[in-house]
What we know:
Blueprint: H1 5-24, E1 34-35, E2 41-42, H2 44-60, E3 65-68, E4 81-89, H3 91-95, E5 102-109, E6 112-120, E7 125-130, E8 134-137, E9 140-141, E10 154-157, H4 160-166, H5 169-176, E11 179-181, H6 185-193, E12 199-202, H7 207-210, H8 213-219, E13 223-225, E14 238-241, H9 246-261
Parallel strand pairs: 3-4, 10-11, 10-12
Antiparallel strand pairs: 1-2, 4-5, 5-6, 6-7, 7-8, 8-9, 12-14, 13-14
Helix pairs in contact: 1-2, 5-9
Amino acid sequence: xxxxxxxxxxxxxxxxxxxxxxxxxxxxxxxxxxxxxxxxxxxxxxxxxxxxxxxxxxxxxxxxxxxxxxxxxxxxxxxxxxxxxxxxxxxxxxxxxxxxxxxxxxxxxxxxxxxxxxxxxxxxxxxxxxxxxxxxxxxxxxxxxxxxxxxxxxxxxxxxxxxxxxxxxxxxxxxxxxxxxxxxxxxxxxxxxxxxxxxxxxxxxxxxxxxxxxxxxxxxxxxxxxxxxxxxxxxxxxxxxxxxxxxxxxxxxxxxxxxxxx
Length: 262
């Protein structure tokens, strides 16, 4: 039997909250930090969170595939469904006691990101969405802002130095915007989806960073794409915007990219 979107969303929500609560056991403690091959940090909280996610998903849907950040993909017998999980998005914030980190659970159905949940344990915010079911913040409907011009926009990014190394796009957007800040990682995209920010730039991402966010932004009335405007979770970069600023933002990103290639 093929599960309904509601059933998938229910399991994704429960798994994200269970895993997120486990991370709180380690938050603001002297947790040991190990560097991975790419020099990004990982902790016991990351690993235990992913184990909980895999266990909850695997018990509910044993034929589904699971792709996670910390361990290799487990390939299920049903090719239609793939869960893509980030057990602790924002580990650098987490290990410094900054509460802006989250647990991300996304579900691809036939290659389309169709279900997404972001749970922010330290702030107890849960954003959830599925195709056609809308987007909610702690159970209440939410949507992107109606900001229509860049000079009124709030622009966020995970990393100012990485953005500036990539192109002049962040410099251009932040200079034109009303406000620019560094509330990054999934938290920044959540702020866009819930109407508290307007543009979020991620200069470097992986699919587990985006799988949950894609349906969330879409159902909230916004958009998440690559910096070139491709609707994908598999690009090397990502930008989320409200519906009114999407083309303006992409025009700046494309122009800056073209200039950087000259």
